[in-house]
TrEMBL record:
Membrane-crossing residue ranges in chain numbering: 24-42, 71-92
Domain Cytochrome b561 per the UniProt entry, residue ranges: 1-92
Entry keyword Zinc: no
Membrane topology term: Multi-pass membrane protein
Keywords, comma-separated and alphabetical: Electron transport, Heme, Iron, Membrane, Metal-binding, Transmembrane, Transmembrane helix, Transport
Main location group: membrane
Gene Ontology CC: membrane
The species this protein was found in: Linum tenue
PANTHER family: CYTOCHROME B561-RELATED (PTHR10106), TRANSMEMBRANE ASCORBATE FERRIREDUCTASE 4-RELATED (PTHR10106:SF41)
Pfam families named in the record: Cytochrom_B561 (PF03188)
Localization (cell): Membrane
Listed name of the protein: Cytochrome b561 domain-containing protein
Keyword Methyltransferase: no
Length: 113
């Protein structure tokens, strides 16, 4: 139902901009929540890969502790976690919020013309 409401409000431009502005915080929250879940899924997949790599190493006693696979997977996991943090920080930063409010006030004032 929410999807249909969003679709119709996109095509029907007569909707009040204040209604759109009131939905913006929920849109931001759901977008960031989905992004965080995607990052968590990727991190879980990397952890699973490392677990299977470690299980394979234990069957072979001559394998070293630091294989290239584990170094790449750990580096990728750290990079992914840092990127996720930077993206979320950029989305919730006060500078970004001030710009958003300025744009919404400008849009609301122009809609009365």
């Amino acid at each position: 139902m929410q999807w249909l409401n969003g679709f119709l409000s996109f095509w029907y431009r007569g909707e009040m901009r204040t209604v759109r502005a009131s939905r913006l915080p929920w849109h931001i929250f759901l977008g960031l929540y989905t992004y965080a879940l995607a990052v968590a899924t990727a991190e879980t997949g990397l952890m699973e890969k490392l677990t299977f790599t470690e299980m394979r190493k234990h069957s072979d006693s001559s394998a070293s502790k630091r294989s290239p696979e584990t170094v790449v997977a750990n580096g990728l996991g750290m990079g992914l976690a840092l990127l996720g943090g930077v993206v979320i920080l950029a989305a919730i930063s006060p500078k970004h919020q001030a710009t958003l409010q300025r744009k919404s006030v400008y849009s609301v004032s122009n809609s009365k013309c």
